[in-house]
Amino acid sequence: MLLTLDMGNTHITLGVFEGETLRFTARMATELQRTEDQYAADLLAIFSLHGVDCDKVNGAIIGSVVPALTGVLVKAVKETVGVTPLIVGPGVKTGLNIHIDQPAGLGADLVCGAVAAAACMKTPCVIADLGTITKLCVLDESGAFIGGAFSAGLGISLDAIAKRTA
Known about the structure:
This protein is α/β, with parallel strands linked by helices. The protein contains four helices and eight strands, in the order βββαβαβαβββα. It has helices at about 35-50, 65-80, 110-120, 155-165; strands at about 1-5, 10-20, 20-30, 60-65, 85, 125-130, 135-140, 145-150. Strand 7 (about 135-140) and strand 8 form a beta hairpin. The longest helix is centred in the middle third of the chain and has 15 residues, at about 65-80. The N and C termini lie far apart (about 50 Å). The model has no long low-confidence stretch (mean pLDDT about 95).
């Protein structure tokens, strides 16, 4: 089985795959003060909740946009399932052609979203990621990443409206 984790600024979304079959998905809060033991305890509880044996996991991958917590999550995954996760980042071969000025600066979340879109959708396409930050990304007809745009997410925008308007 493969454990996949997407660490964003607000939540960590995880999924466990058995071959091509998604066994379950779950979410945890992203909290900078939490330790690897706390995240490991959460992972154990989530696996138990979904009736999946941690010992059956033989691979793990993390896409993170929270560098301060990436190492913490790596240790939690090692402790929980006994494997060292692959970290999505510059140098990891994904098959995605990145046609932007600074390809190494493309976030792991955008890389993973683009790889998934290229595998599942007809290109060209626009990918919308509506998280803490709203991100729109574009793949050209060959499936290459050619750019995107960012703006404050819905929660941030609503908070600003509530605090800064009459």
